[in-house]
Specification:
Elements lengths: L3 H17 L4 H71 L3 E3 L4 E3 L30 H9 L20
Antiparallel strand pairs: 1-2
Helix pairs in contact: 1-2
């Protein structure tokens, strides 16, 4: 089966031949018929490619669903693990047991450390707040300014790749 890029090359070559053969009517008709056949092959190949792409899209949807299912399962397992450890910690505290030794591991109940709990963030003085600043180009403003004719060092207008729209 002919590859899409080969069909493209043949169509381009025939297009150049058709331009050169405008004077020979029978040759021009033969070229037009050949181009029509190649165009039909091109269309069939494009349709097949879109079907494969859509199948791949369906596969990614199924993979996303499986990822979500596995993430939910992971979260359930982590929650269960945390609950079991909290249950053990609570009972060790209640029983005043601070250390359990076994051949496989040692379980120790370690005294907690001093931490800060923020109860009202708005009431905190500014010196106890950290500021995160993100500096990045404002592409929308740059595009508008460049379209308005301004020259801006470090920026220029270019064309993006043509997009493929399948409806």
């Amino acid at each position: 089966m002919t590859k899409l890029y080969e069909l493209t090359t043949e169509l381009n070559e025939l297009s150049h031949l058709a331009f050169e053969a405008e004077d020979d009517q029978s040759f021009a008709i033969a070229i037009a018929d050949t181009m029509e056949g190649l165009q039909m092959q091109f269309n069939d190949k494009a349709e097949a490619l879109v079907k494969v792409a859509e199948t791949l899209g369906a596969n990614t949807t199924a993979i996303d669903a499986e990822i979500n299912r596995l993430q939910a399962r992971k979260k359930t397992i982590i929650n269960r693990q945390t609950a079991l450890k909290d249950y053990l910690r609570h009972n060790m505290e209640a029983s005043e047991i601070t250390k359990i030794e076994s051949p496989l591991f040692t379980i120790s109940l370690v005294k907690g450390r001093v931490i800060c709990e923020v109860t009202d963030e708005a009431a905190l003085p500014d010196e106890y707040m950290s500021v995160k600043t993100e500096i990045k180009p404002d592409k929308a403003a740059l595009t508008k300014a460049l379209k308005d004719g301004l020259e801006i060092a470090g920026a220029r207008l270019t064309m993006s790749k043509p997009s493929l729209r399948i409806k």
